[in-house]
Amino acid sequence: MLAGNIEYYQPSTVNEAVEQFFILKKENKLPMYYAGGTEILTLGRLNIIHPGAIIDIKAIKETLSHESYQEHFIFGASLPLTYIEEKNIFPLLTQTSMEIADHTARNKITIGGNVCGNIFYREAVLPFLLCDSTVVVAGKEGQKTHPIQDIFNKTFQFEEGQFLIQLLIEKKYLTLPFITIKKRQQWETGYPLITVACIKIENQLRFAFSGLCPFPFRSQKVETELNNTLLPKEERINHAIEQLPTPVLNDVEGSKEYRLFVLRNTLKEMIVEMEEKE
Fold first, then answer.
1. Judging by beta carbons within 10 Å of its beta carbon (0-12, 13-18, 19+), is residue 125 exposed, middle or buried?
2. Which of 80, 161, 179, 206 is deepest in the core (most CB within 10 A)?
């Protein structure tokens, strides 16, 4: 359970937030950055995390950016998922994230909170993996910009005291053909069995996955097999499954065998639809 004496801070600039983190760390107060706070509350009630202080980044204007900048579109880390859905600038992101929890929860869940979360699904990161996004991070050495593939490996590889400010994608990705499918074993809400997102660029399909392994991922080895049009679809899918990272999940949401069964059918459905799109 979360302690009743947690200290709360709301800095108005990136530098203030980072400085406050290291002040609190020096005082052994176990600081955590906070935007929507849904995961902090959930994990705190389960006694998985025990923050002594939280640093709310929602007052930092850069984390609320939702705008065009030169050849990119910017998504601030503190934007609620429902805001992104309503604006629908990036339909692939909208479709991938709109079934994360229910609408009331998504009013609080932020894009940064989801993609940086401890709960392994992190579906909202899939479109950014597919689109070779750029990530802006704040830390002790100031603000840094990274290609997402350089800083995301199963999860974001942040150094101590760093936090996500923004995610940027090139505008060309906003209107590409796409499909995203979320499969559940039962019910219409709650945790999914698997989520698969796909875009088509230069006549090649890209795929990213959540819920299949204990981390979201995009694999070029998997994509190479799925794009091998010299082979029948079933054979392409079989070869792609041989390239999956391990382990494939085997939990209360579904067994490994059931997940792979659902994945085969989902990939076949997606390939058929996407190869017809221009």
1. buried
2. 206
Omega prior to 245 cis, within 30 of 0: no
For range 180-202, the mean pLDDT: 83
For the chain, the domains span: 7-56, 61-173, 176-275
61-173 CATH fold: 3.30.465
Separation between Cα atoms, residue 185 and residue 46, nearest integer Å = 25
* Separation of alpha carbons 35 and 57, rounded Å: 6
- How far is 255 from 252, CA to CA, in rounded Å? 7
Give the C-alpha separation, 109 to 67, whole Å.
20
**Minimal CA–CA distance to 196: which of 140, 127, 243?**
127
CATH of domain 176-275: 3.30.390.50
Tens-place pLDDT, residues 87-110: 999 999 999 998 787 778 788 899
Report the predicted TM-score, pTM, of the whole model to 2 decimal places.
0.92
Identify whether 80 is preceded by a cis peptide bond (ω within 30 of 0): no
Coil, helix or strand at residue 246: coil
Tokens matching residue 50: 């025990």
205 token code pair? 């399909």
